Amino acid sequence: MEFLADVFVTPFVDMVQAPDFLMQVLWEGLVSGILYALIALGFVLIFRSSRIFNFAQGIMVVFAALTLVGLFALGVPAWLSVGLTLVVMFVLAVVIERVVLRPLVGQPDIILFMATIGITLFLIGFGETIFGGENKVMITEELGIPTGDTVLEPFGGLLILQHLDITVVIVATLLVLALLAFLNYTQMGRAIRALGDDHQAALSVGISLQTIWVLVWFIAGIIALVTGIAWGARAGVSFALEVIAYKALPVLMLGGLESITGAIVGGLMIGILEKLFEIYWGQPLLGGNTETWFAFVLALIVLLFRPQGLFGERIIERV
Amino acid sequence: MKDTEGYVTADGRQIGGTLMEMRNITLRFGGVVAIQDISFDIHEGEVRAIIGPNGAGKSSMLNVISGFYTPSEGEVWYQGAKRPPMKPFEVARQGVARTFQNIALFEGMTVLDNVMTGRLTHMNAGIASQALWWGKARDEEMENREKVERVIDFLEIQNIRKTPVGRLPYGLKKRVELARALAAEPSLLLLDEPMAGMNVEEKEDMSRFILDVNDEFGTTICLIEHDMGVVMDLSDRVVVMDYGKKIGDGTPDEVRNNQDVIDAYLGVPHE
């Protein structure tokens, strides 16, 4: 009985008794959630326009962050480094399209997936050769990102909002909204969606496969840079950053690989739920550190009931 | 070009000079010859049909015109110039729009978005301008919307503008596909079996739309069909193919009385 109470009663009592702390937990969940959503969007864009599951998204985050820090270390001004890093990400997109994807057009999806694993391994080695393997510090202050905090006192309690987190939430939200507008209201955006639906038809209306692929990989690069800065500012810049991208996997399982709404809602859901679970169930009952696996378990449970994910297109096989 | 003279049709319409010319086109897949040494031309403003029994090579010919296949031998002349080997999207940007026999629409997108993709060939604004939804991109989007709405009105699909294409019945999908091709304001419109799988009423609607398109916009149309009755009513001139070869070319009346054509359709054994 006592165990049942610990699972089903105590956590909720705690939440009600300390609403300020609950808000703190929700806020921190939201910050991670929006970053998960952003990365998941990068996956969805590439998947929709080319049926490729981009295993290299994680290493692109690391590569972007390393390039930024590396350029700054060479004496390039901070904001110019950001611009140059974007150029590097664009060149990377062009090279990947030209060298890896174009020769593999029309091959089974699994081959293209394996090619992205190849890109990952190459970027790990290439990155270490150029930038070295040791940890680096993100140039947060030099970029003018505020690092202080604001203390609010809701319900007579305490709520601490890191300025870094606020900035991340604002920038990531703007980026997500901009991407949505781009996809829905511009011809280029339509071309990206069209290519995902039907290659042949897309060719017949004058869409160039190559241009669109470079474009979506570049967008994935921009997303990688933003995530790299945001996550690097908290945890430092190292190859361990790569794992943030794998946090997007359960998001994609939840949201479905096809759905943009799914990526956003899934990301926020996982960010918030894993934080809630960690604080109210994980730490008191399971000794903590549940954030590493909770998202995957949640995704598996959802998949039991909805194999296509929460927002994916229903898979109907005709017999 | 050897022949830039127009001609006058039986019902008194003036047809312009040569728009496209296929010269000695041969297409092989390994050892199989799909098209064997075929030449014909398409004049500006006419409705040109390619007919023939199943497997005659009609669709292959259309795919050569639209750049999906590169001919093994022969030349394609378009708007007075020889066309180098091109990718389909480059052909599309030259003003050749097409529909597909098995309907190739973007199923997840609305009718309006589908038709809007037809305007992609007219897109000039850069990516940056589009990303910021500013300046040229914004003006272009407005202009494109206007043109697209006109096409939608013309084909009478206003009431399904916001419906995802995946939910539409077959006949309407065919019409949406035609709308998308029309939105490109093509110089040459290729229709691959526009009437395939339709009932009598839908066929009549589609015939009317094809004639109206030709009439109102002056669009040059090249279509494939194997329903002889429909083709003869619609087209100004007809190419007849059988086993990859051209066996007839001329006005519907000429073709109807051509002995080779009669043989091909009645199934006289080849010697």
Set out the fold topology:
The complex is a heterodimer of chains A (319) and B (271).
Chain A: H1 2-8, H2 10-17, H3 19-50, H4 57-73, H5 78-101, H6 109-131, E1 149-152, E2 159-162, H7 163-185, H8 187-197, H9 199-204, H10 209-235, H11 243-246, H12 248-255, H13 260-286, H14 294-305
Antiparallel strand pairs in A: 1-2
Chain B: E1 7-8, E2 14-15, E3 18-29, E4 32-43, E5 47-51, H1 58-65, E6 73-78, E7 81-82, H2 88-93, E8 96-98, H3 111-117, H4 127-131, H5 136-154, H6 170-183, E9 188-192, H7 200-217, E10 220-224, H8 228-234, E11 237-242, E12 245-250, H9 252-256, H10 259-266
Parallel strand pairs in B: 5-10, 5-11, 8-9, 9-10
Antiparallel strand pairs in B: 1-2, 3-4, 3-6, 6-7, 11-12
Helix pairs in contact in B: 3-6, 5-6
What is the number of strand segments of chain A? 2
Overall, the morphology of chain A is globular
Helical proportion of chain B, percent range: 25-40%
What oligomeric state do these chains adopt?
Answer: heterodimer
Stretches with pLDDT under 50, minimum 5 residues of chain A: none
Q: What value does the average pLDDT of chain A take?
A: 87
Q: What share of residues are in beta strands of chain A?
A: under 5%
For the biggest sheet of chain A, the summary is: 2 strands, antiparallel
Helical stretch tally of chain A: 14
Strand content of chain B: 15-25%
How many strands, which pairing sense, and closed or not: the largest β-sheet of chain B? 6 strands, mixed
Highest CATH level, the class of the domain at 1-94 and 187-195 and 220-266 in chain B: Alpha Beta
Query: Which class of secondary structure composition applies to the elements of chain B?
Result: alpha/beta
Integer tally of domains of chain A? 1
CATH topology (level 3) name of chain A: ABC transporter involved in vitamin B12 uptake, BtuC
